[in-house]
Design brief:
The chain has about 270 residues and is α+β, with helices and mostly antiparallel strands. About 55% of the residues lie in helices and about 15% in strands. The strands form two sheets. Strands 2-4-5-7-6 form a five-stranded mixed beta sheet. Strand 6 and strand 7 form a beta hairpin. The longest helix has about 35 residues, at about 50-80. It is elongated. The two termini are about 50 Å apart. The mean pLDDT is about 90. Bound molecules: adenosine-5'-triphosphate and magnesium ion (MG). The site of magnesium ion (MG) has 5 residues, from helix 5.
């Protein structure tokens, strides 16, 4: 019941109908070797030969396009979790994957920058109780920064060097003792100490006017630290690379305390 489903669902039928109609015309052509001049002229005017060859191709690329839009719509929905304002147990890998899908277009090869490879080292994670949409926003900010820095590094060092020693983004997830999870995102060439000192300051940006607001990491820090009682850390040194790590508890404390209290109550009773 969303508009892209109308297109996606009907393209399949449209392709079949088009194939049937083209075959019908071809049947006429096969048995009616001398069509009336009006028909013959019409066939020539519309370049029927070309149309019958091209129409299936047009429909099939429309189907591929509709399929991509459908995937994107699904990802956006999964990404923003608009329907959920509450904490819920979620699969963190789904959040990371939908964020990557939204960023896909920026990861692809560009005329002046080669493809940015993403290496996933996903561990075995249980569901994590969190504000999924907001946590995805954190992944988005960190991954978008990673792409920005790799892009400008590639421009700086030149295409040949960029393609010989390509930069990758590595995403590692792990379940750590006893009830925390960590997502590490490693990228790029690293940053200078004076940038690292100010990373999380609101409005701190090294990007040109109009490109960065300098809010991405300060908002991410709020989401991780205040809303999820976790840690957002950055390790980085020029030439060595950067690694952001997001560590959050599997369950939020309010619940833990509440369940402890109810446990104690039941013990007393
Ligand atoms: N992975 C990274 N490598 C090197 N520098 C980084 C990295 N991530 C962030 N930075 C630096 O930290 C600054 C602040 O990042 P932040 O995400 O808060 O803001 P921004 O990306 O500049 O703008 P916005 O995210 O609001 O569009 C960036 O301008 C950049 O200089
Ligand atoms: Mg940013």
């Amino acid at each position: 019941n969303n508009p892209i489903n109308f297109i996606y669902g009907n393209i399949h039928h449209a392709s079949e109908y088009a194939r049937d109609l083209l075959e019908l015309v071809q049947l006429y052509q096969k048995y009616d070797l001398n069509p009336r001049s009006e028909i013959a002229e019409y066939l020539e005017n519309i370049d029927f030969h070309f149309v019958s060859d091209d129409l299936p191709k047009v429909l099939s690329s429309m189907k591929i396009g509709a399929d991509r839009i459908l995937q994107l719509v699904k990802s956006f929905r999964n990404f923003s979790r608009l329907d959920e304002g509450k904490m819920k147990p979620v699969n963190i890998h789904e959040g990371l994957d939908s964020t990557l899908l939204i960023l896909q277009i920026r990861l692809k090869a560009q005329p002046d920058s080669p493809l940015i490879q993403v290496v996933k080292n996903y561990g075995n994670l249980p569901l994590v109780e969190c504000y999924a949409g907001e946590l995805n926003q954190v992944f988005m900010n960190i991954l978008a920064n990673a792409i920005d820095v790799i892009e400008s590094y590639n421009l700086e060092r030149g295409y040949q060097e960029a393609i010989t020693n390509p930069c990758a983004i590595a995403i590692t997830t792990e379940y750590s003792t006893p009830n925390r999870i960590t997502v590490r995102i490693a990228d790029g060439p690293g940053m200078a100490e004076n940038v690292k000192q100010r990373l999380f300051d609101p409005f701190f940006t090294t990007k040109p006017v109009g490109k960065g607001t300098g809010l991405g990491l300060s908002i991410s820090d709020q989401i991780v630290v205040e809303k999820h009682k976790g840690f957002l850390r950055c390790e980085s040194a020029p030439g060595k690379g950067t690694e952001f790590s997001i560590e959050i508890p599997l369950r939020q404390e309010v619940r833990q305390i509440a369940s402890l209290v109810s446990l104690q109550r039941s013990e007393v009773a």
